[in-house]
Design a protein that fits this description.
- By secondary structure, this protein is mainly β.
- Helix content is 14%, strand content 37%.
- The protein has two helices and eleven strands; from the N terminus they run E-E-H-E-E-E-E-E-H-E-E-E-E.
- The strands form four sheets. A three-stranded mixed sheet has the order 1-5-2, with no helix packed on it. The protein has a three-stranded mixed sheet with strand order 3-6-4. A three-stranded mixed sheet has the order 8-11-9.
Length: 147
Amino acid sequence: MVKVWPNSAGGVVPVMRGLPLAQATAILQQAGLKLGQVIMQPSDSVDKDAVISSLPPFGSQASRDVPVNLTVSAGAGEVAVPAVRGWGRTRAQDMIKQAGLNVGNIRYIYDEENDPGIVLRQDPQAGSKAAKGSNVNIWVSTDIEPE
């Protein structure tokens, strides 16, 4: 059974999942329907700025006077920044990548108290939220004295 979103001349809401918003808007107009609200929502499975869903739903009948609201991907969501301070550089880099983040700048700091290769500082801080794919900068101990 197809649900009709109020009865009057209109058309079937086209299936637009995964299409860029601009293309989906044009398709709606071609179907004789109008765009309503655009709601941005994080998504790991749908590309940024592509359509996730619609209301009325894809495939349902909609009248010309009922706007079609689209939920659009804002891209990957946020992830927690791992605590890498105190770990070795290689392990810290692996932890950052496993969290869905990238290793940004690696700076070396002369430090007599720690073994070389230990992460002394990170930015952003552990436990904070960061956009998936963003950079985490680390400062690593070295036994090479600055000149």
